[in-house]
Task: structure prediction
Amino acid sequence: MFDTKRPPVGELLYQLKYGRAQTKVEKLAIADQLAETAENFIRNTWRAPIDAILPVPPSNVRAIQPVLVVAEALAARLGVPVCTGCLTKVKQTPQMKDITDYDKRKEVLAGAFTVDPALTTGKNLLIFDDLHGSGATVSRIVELLKDPGRAKAVYLLTLTTK
Result:
C-alpha cells in the first residue's frame, strides 16, 4: 500500500472516480464540491469570459462520468451551457493516463475528435477536464476548436494533475 498524498481537490476527484463515493447522491455531492472550487477560481481569480463549457470526452465508460457531472455542476453555477455537441469523440482510444510517450499520445488521438463549427464559431469556450497529463489531448482539441471550429477563444481548466 502506498502512502499517497494528494491535494484536497485531487483527493475529492480520486474519491469521485475510484474511492468511497458509491451512490449517485454521494458522487453528485463530491462533484458539486469540485464545481464550487472551480467556480470560485473562475469568478474570483481568472475572470475569463465563457460562453460554454466543453467537457473532454472520457476514454473510459462509467455509469456516472466524473468530468461530465462536474462540468454540469460548474455550468449551473456559472449560468452557462455545457456543450457536449461541440466536441464529439468519434474514435475509441485507450486511457491516456496509460500512455506515457507524448508522440504516441498524439498518434493515438489522431482522428479521435470532431468539432461542430455551427456550435463553436465565435464563442469563448472552456475546455474542462478532470486530470492534466502531457497536454496532448487538449492540444488536439484546441487545434480543432480553432480550425475548423473557428472559436473566438479557447480556455482550459483542469482540476488536478496525474
Remarks:
- The first helix runs from residue 8 to 17.
